[in-house]
Amino acid sequence: MNRKSKQTIAFGAFRLLSLAVMGILLWILGFIIYNGAGAMSIEFLTTSPKDNMTEGGIFPAIVGTFYLVVCSMAFAFPLGVMSAIYITEYASNATIVRIIRIMTNNLGGVPSIVFGLFGMSLFVNTFGFGDSILAGSLTLGLLILPLVIRTTEEALKAVPDAYRSGSLALGATKLQTVRRIVMPAAMPNIITGLILSIGRISGETAPILFTAAAYFLPQLPHSIFDQVMALPYHLYVLATSGTDIEASEGAAYGTALVLVGIVLLMNAFAGVIRRYFNNKMKTY
Predict the structure, then answer these.
(1) How is the chain split into domains, by residue range?
(2) For the chain, what is the mean pLDDT?
(3) Where does 51-282 sit in CATH, by number?
């Protein structure tokens, strides 16, 4: 077999595997849409659950999920980005950088249920936040912090050193270079990390199980110290013990469809931001 034939076979196998991945994704989405579309209605999206969560809607769970995602990103994103900037742009001691990276990788490998137990011990009990949006958001923020740091660090490394050298040669300070040159150039890839982080925390159940999620709470929260319903935990409750599974099957699939839809909408919004920064960089 000649070299060209081997290349054709290899690329054909890669194409087939890519199509298989797309097929699996479309299969999952189609399954959720097929089973959950029947539950979709204005009432389902805008009312509270009732009758042991077999009737009514999921509006409190939608709002609770939104609060948890926004608050956790407000905590993790600035902290993760600043940590990555320090590692990439300022830290000169290779040993310290290596230790930070090892600790970050180890933190990223901790199971989510362990984060939930840690959040319950630290934020709920020690700090006295109780089961609340604040405790759950901080726990979720710690969960995605390694992902934000790693993706931001790789984004900063992808910026050519010529950008930095040119800025410094023109008399800009290190801070001005990072703020005006490096960060805008790296922002599209940083937004990619944001998208991955949103997708992960939107579907996490274990961390909020001990820190924020309520089994049945039909009213909306009034502050960050209130408990909330959340779509992942609500879906878990509908699909397992505590409810009439047959009666709530449609609501469970509908909840899954809404959760997937929220993740897709957040990803689309983040994609718009990414394109904005891409277009902005092209004008430089």
Answers:
(1) 51-282
(2) 85
(3) 1.10.3720.10
